[in-house]
Protein: Uracil-xanthine permease
Organism: Evtepia gabavorous
Amino acid sequence: MKEKDTTIGQAPIRDARTLGAPRMLVLGLQHMFAMFGATVLVPILVQSYGLPLSTQTTLFFAGFGTLFFHLCTKLEIPAFLGSSFAFLGGFSAMANLDTGKYAAMAPGEKLQYACGGIVVAGLLYVILALVVKVVGVHRVMRFLPPVVTGPIIILIGLNLAPSAVSNASTCWWLALVSMAIIVAANIWGRGMVKIIPILLGVVGGYVAALLAGMVDFTGLSGSTLLGGENPILGLQPFFTDFSGSVAKFDLSAILVMAPIAVASMMEHIGDISAISATVGENFIEKPGLHRTLVGDGVATALAGLFGGPANTTYGENTGVLALSRVHDPRVIRLAALYAMVLSFSPAFAYLVNTIPAAIIGGVSFILYGMISAIGVRNVVENRVDFTNSRNLIIAAVILVCGLGFTDGLTFHVGGVTITLTSLAVAAIAGIVLNAILPGNDFHFGKSESGDDVASLGRY
């Protein structure tokens, strides 16, 4: 009797070892490509704000954070942790912060304080995990309904919109090339093409820039395997300059970055829900949302501690799970190892940094608008009733705070200057109003599609 061939596209595969080592390695590479464009885009965007966030450090902690997350979740969940877009608004606010001690601060030191805020944001995940473990997820989510999280996500995109226009204006035709590729791949693409539109937009725009002679490779002159300005192999900045990379802590920076955890935690819960639906397992119940929150939160705190961005579970890789029907977490761990290997190449990081600003602007046009649109979707799919004056007031106050406090809110406590960014003010106002106003009728789990739309990685 002929043995049945086990191939991708038939029944879901939970053990990729049955496919053989070569195919398993290729599947891991596919997951790396899925996360790559968005993960690397975060340090590129943060650098455009004026803060020197390292591409090498970002890739290292994306891989390391993914492996740590898998350990925390008993090696059961096929999730990849990449760079979170939710914190871009915080990085932008930190770059523009010019009050008190930040007035004459160097960009590198500002980044350290921003990363200190990310450490605290990661620890908030751990606190939420403990609360979820004690009282249950349904009770916790009543304090973070879509009428609060939706407008906050909308504001993240709107506050970043000016930087997209600024970058794109350096060369409009190149920005339009990148935008067109992303739109075409996302709407008309099939299979893997539809899953990696951001990566294709960056690569396609980069090829156009190369043909037009707009890319500068002078930083690679004289580079060798272990020598030169940007060698092929080399350590990440936190290894070579520990004191210049480790996070610093200040209340103003913490209040800029930490409140964004409200949106990113909703993103996390949405992604875990989406992965559960894709794989056909209830990961919120087993191994438990408290474990996934601890894994994501500690991974984020560790990344921030050594100068990296916040991590988040990636919807792009959930798309690959659906496409390949290979649901083995081992394949995700291979992608994590690939990311860590790439992080040991300064030459590769330099190549990433040669991407023209116009391409970043074109990609940002789509990305930042999409973040805001996802916030709208979060509100719509959860059927938030805006004929209810309670919901209308909460959303109105959040939006006005987020758009009105353009310079943030600065006050002095005991001789210490504290600055809250517009997004932080909006998040605090929304959470407080939702807690004190009567009539909260949100029940987590009531809308299966709505509960998982907070993901900033899905489109």
Summary: The longest helix spans residues 21-49.
